[in-house]
Design brief:
The structure is a homodimer of 234-residue chains. Helices cover 54% and strands 9% of the residues of chain A. The first copy, chain A, has 234 residues and is mainly α. In chain A, helix 2 links the parallel strand 1 and strand 2. Chains A and B meet through helix 5, helix 6, helix 7, helix 8 and helix 9 of A and helix 5, helix 6, helix 7, helix 8 and helix 9 of B.
Chain lengths: 234, 234
């Protein structure tokens, strides 16, 4: 069964491939019925929307870009979980052309999994996710690349390192794709993070205790904001 | 009851104050008995050893520097846990002057909590902990400082950010002390991490997919090393 045959007569098609595989896939969806809807679960949206626009031709309005913010570093069938989307957020990023009817169907589909749907502009989604997900993944990968050769050091890891490192267990090929397809927003987030790190390093280097304490206190305030947003969640 | 009175006649004194409070504390231990032992639980060892050497005078050989690698971002009596040290590592970093008898007693004390004791040189301990604990804390604080003003972004955080951010809930004053008293080792770790981040950023900026994948794959190998060291633990 080819992909073209498989999607013929389908009501809903969920595209769940790494970002760089998307451009090759959308042209194969040209033959879907005019009542079918196509949606995706990708972590980057502007790139995927462009790929769909280029690839799907006149079926493009039937594509509803979506991103369920859920999952883990694990992959494969064994990592599946029936309640994965319960109480989690799903962001839908329609464009002008997107059919309102298709949007409604995809929203309904996600709401049935117990997820909370939010609609926003694709570029806004990409900047937010660069900061809260793509940057933290790059941090974890970089830290573990640095520690990969230091086997003895790793023996003395406590909970902090283990937590921070967990997402470096994610699929490197998937994260290469995400990084390259959300390039500008990620580079901006990397730049901001690097400035925050430099602020700390300079305070440490110049033994400026007061300034260092200010930075660290702001960091803890950021954590408090996150904890509050978690507790009043959904 | 003053500190001087409190320690009079004590068998074992456990110093558990932030690093920068140590230099003011050790001189108050000059009046301890000649059979008493003093130990600490500080995250940095070379600095604490120097403070004890300066402050304790002829009682210095009775000081056994120690660091239990356990705990959480929480502080206060409410964060106490009876099994906190069970199966965890405690590093003891004696110096030439350290009494072997005192060392044996402190080792015994820790082993009774269910901890696994390892003896190493203080500078070695400090370099390892800079990489596996002090650097990750600075990363978490810097990330959350950067995100502190971005309340909307934080709403869309998934598990990765929450895990990585948790240790930014730690006490900023304690971490200022740790950073300043393990300054050189931490600056070196910050430098290495910054190079690893720059490697990723440059590959992304120049759209070098192969090079990016190599970095990320090494990062995942580092995570695998950590997982293996956790599974065959103690």
């Amino acid at each position: 069964l080819s992909l073209e045959e498989a999607v013929e007569g389908a009501d809903v098609i969920v595209v769940a491939v790494p970002p760089l595989a998307m451009p090759g896939l959308f042209p194969k969806l040209k033959g879907i019925g005019e009542d079918a809807v196509v949606t995706d679960v990708g972590s980057v949206k502007s790139f995927v929307i462009e790929a769909a626009r280029q690839g799907m031709g006149e079926r493009f309005p039937q594509f509803v870009p979506a991103h369920p913010i859920a999952g883990s570093e694990k992959s494969g069938v064994e990592a599946s979980a029936g309640d994965l989307f319960q109480g989690r957020r799903v962001v839908i990023t329609p464009v002008e052309e997107t059919s309102r009817e298709a949007l409604g169907r995809v929203r309904n589909l996600w709401e049935q999994t117990g997820a909370h749907v939010e609609v926003m502009e694709a570029g806004h989604h990409d900047r937010i996710l660069a900061q809260t997900s793509h940057l933290p993944h790059m941090m974890a990968f970089a830290l573990m690349e640095m520690l990969a050769e230091r086997r003895e050091a790793v023996k003395f890891s406590a909970g902090g390192l283990r937590d921070i490192a967990r997402i470096a267990g994610s699929d490197p090929a998937l994260w290469r794709d995400i990084a390259l397809t959300n390039r500008e927003a990620l580079l901006e987030a990397l730049q901001h993070f690097s400035e925050a790190m430099r602020g700390l390093a300079q305070a440490i280097e110049h033994r400026e205790g007061e300034r260092l304490l200010e930075h660290l206190t702001k960091g803890r305030e950021g954590w408090n904001t996150l904890v509050k947003s978690m507790s009043k969640e959904l």
